[in-house]
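Worked example 2:
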Amino acid sequence: MLLLAGGLKQRAHTPLILAPPNSPLLRRARLAGLEAEAIPMYADWDLRAAYAVRARIRDSNADIVHAHDARSHAIARVSLIGRNSPPLVVTRRVPFVPKAARFKYGKRVTRFIAVSVAVRDAMVEAGIDQRRILVVHSGVEAPPAGLVPRDWRSELDWPADSVICGVVGAMTIEKGVAELAGIAANLSPETRDRARILLLGGDDAGRMEIGGVPGFSAGFVEDIIPAVAGLDVLWHPARAEGLGTSVIDAMALGVPPVAFAVGGIAEVVENDANGLLVAPGNISAFALAADRLIIDAKLRQRLAASARTRAGMFSAAAMTQQTEAVYYQLV
């Protein structure tokens, strides 16, 4: 959302971000010079928040209202009751079939943007008219020139020949955190000795052991790009994934991923070309793929070079242009 707003501003539009108080989005938007307002949003059907959003829509004479998650979708829908305009665009990022919600997914949502074909197909399975859904892949920024990767080996006193396997994002069941111990335990003895697991997200838990492999949980890292650039391999054992922007970020930085082929991941990663894909839920296969990347430095280098090129297809600029095209269809 932040990248989209910045891209729209560069293209001479006037984005207004409405976000919860004290949220990272609000803080970063203001630092980026974007117009942003705080609106408390305590629940999906928060009537006070909906009233405040309705007032901002009226006062700004908005041409488009664009909701970017489930809560903002519900609040925006309520805020527009009784109004035929402006058009409401909703981005859906998860590959689950939406629950029956006639009001929320009704015709007042003018267009849905799905972040992948997998997300679109789940929506169609729920009975949403495919003509109302457009696929716009989420985009990431190109790594900044002169980026200095974070030196995790020095920070954590890990051996110089260790291979840092990173897990990035929310440390939830859906993201496959429960599978990490099984994956690590299934590594070969040689790779288990060399591997180090680094968790970037969730709680700052410090040093730990994961399936017999030394690990470290750094918690939420706001300056995430140098942190990811310091990885050797990305592990992405998510059970479900709308697209996987953390995977794209890693690929853009030359960090090859190992991932389950779920959701939109297969739209991003080409197996054995710029990463390794394994059958969903197959922990043994994931460990074998991880073994290959830990042992074979030349394979890591080959996949990394191709990954950088592949990630360029999922740029923030392309996402902005395609989203802008959706807007122009509606106004």
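The radius of gyration is 21 Å. The first strand starts at residue 16 and ends at 19.
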